[in-house]
């Protein structure tokens, strides 16, 4: 399996390129519109055929590159079940598996940051957590129908039930981390370690964070799979 972690510095977003080396079939997870040229160049250099653009959720901090990549490569756009994106080619429910050549990508429904969110368990040794579990943090829960109690359940009852050695690859990082493990986050994540549901909810409800800079642009665009509205 080929596995690459790519970074967008403006939004601190990670995009993941995963491919089967035998068939050259590839998938991009959470592509960023401003990085489409980078991603397309890398696909060409590695001789990969993009089959899917896969979203962990409807993003509020960046516009997805799926629309442009779909036009350029004829790949399919895939989003979590019940996501507000009628333009998607496919919706993935909890437990469903997407095969990319011989690479297995299993959806794990992890709502809470938004009301429709998936993590993706890749070949049973690493998990792409999107904005649910971050390294030493977690996604906020104060917009897009977020719910702190639901996020606590998703992380503690689903992600923390994966084997301790499972590698954790988040959707964002703001501190210079690239990868962690489930066991490490259980022990050291300050929003979760030694907290019960009530104290987690209290913490999350009092973060008082500013809205993402691109929220008013990104959410409606991503509900159209990354197509930005044309204004006249």
Describe this structure in words.
InterPro entries: Metallo-B-lactamas (IPR001279), Mito_Persulfide_Diox (IPR051682), POD-like_MBL-fold (IPR044528), RibonucZ/Hydroxyglut_hydro (IPR036866). One of its GO terms (molecular function) is metal ion binding. Pfam families: Lactamase_B. Belongs to the metallo-beta-lactamase superfamily. Glyoxalase II family. This protein is an alpha/beta fold and 232 residues long. It has a single domain, classed as 4-Layer Sandwich (Metallo-beta-lactamase, Chain A). The strands form three sheets. It has a six-stranded mixed β-sheet, covered by helices on one side. The protein has a six-stranded mixed β-sheet with strand order 7-8-9-10-13-14. A hairpin with a 2-residue loop joins strand 7 and strand 8. Helix 3 crosses helix 5. The radius of gyration is 17 Å and the shape is globular. The N and C termini lie far apart (46 Å). The mean pLDDT is 96.
Shape: globular
Using the CA coordinates, give the radius of gyration: 17 Å
**Any idea what the CATH superfamily is called?**
Ribonuclease Z/Hydroxyacylglutathione hydrolase-like
Strand line-up of the largest beta sheet: 1-2-3-4-5-6
Structural class: alpha/beta
Question: Ends: how far apart?
Answer: 46 Å
What helical percentage do the residues reach?
10-25%
Q: Say how many strands there are.
A: 14
Q: Mind summarizing the main beta sheet?
A: 6 strands, mixed
Keywords: Acetylation, Dioxygenase, Iron, Metal-binding, Oxidoreductase, Transit peptide
Family: Belongs to the metallo-beta-lactamase superfamily. Glyoxalase II family.
Cofactor: Fe(2+)
Protein name: Metallo-beta-lactamase superfamily protein
């Amino acid at each position: 399996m080929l596995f690459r972690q790519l970074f967008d510095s403006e939004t601190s977003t990670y995009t993941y390129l995963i491919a089967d080396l035998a068939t050259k079939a590839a998938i991009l997870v959470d592509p960023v519109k401003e990085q489409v040229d980078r991603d397309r160049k890398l696909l060409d250099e590695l001789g990969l055929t993009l089959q899917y653009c896969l979203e962990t959720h409807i993003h509020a901090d960046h516009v997805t590159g799926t629309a442009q990549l779909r036009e350029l490569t004829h790949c399919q756009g895939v989003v979590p079940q019940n996501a507000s994106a009628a333009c998607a080619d496919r919706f993935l429910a909890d437990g469903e598996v997407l095969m990319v050549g011989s690479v297995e990508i299993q959806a794990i429904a992890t709502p809470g940051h938004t009301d429709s969110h998936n993590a993706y368990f890749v070949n049973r040794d690493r998990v792409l957590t999107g904005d649910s579990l971050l390294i030493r943090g977690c996604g906020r829960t104060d917009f897009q129908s977020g719910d702190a109690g639901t996020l606590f359940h998703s992380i503690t009852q689903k992600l923390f039930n994966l084997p301790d050695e499972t590698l954790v690859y988040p959707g964002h990082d703001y501190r210079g981390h690239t990868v962690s493990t489930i066991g490490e986050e259980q022990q050291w994540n300050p929003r979760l370690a030694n907290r019960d549901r009530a104290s987690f909810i209290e913490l999350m409800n009092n973060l008082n964070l500013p809205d993402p800079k691109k929220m008013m642009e990104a959410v409606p665009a991503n509900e159209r799979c990354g197509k930005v509205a044309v204004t006249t």
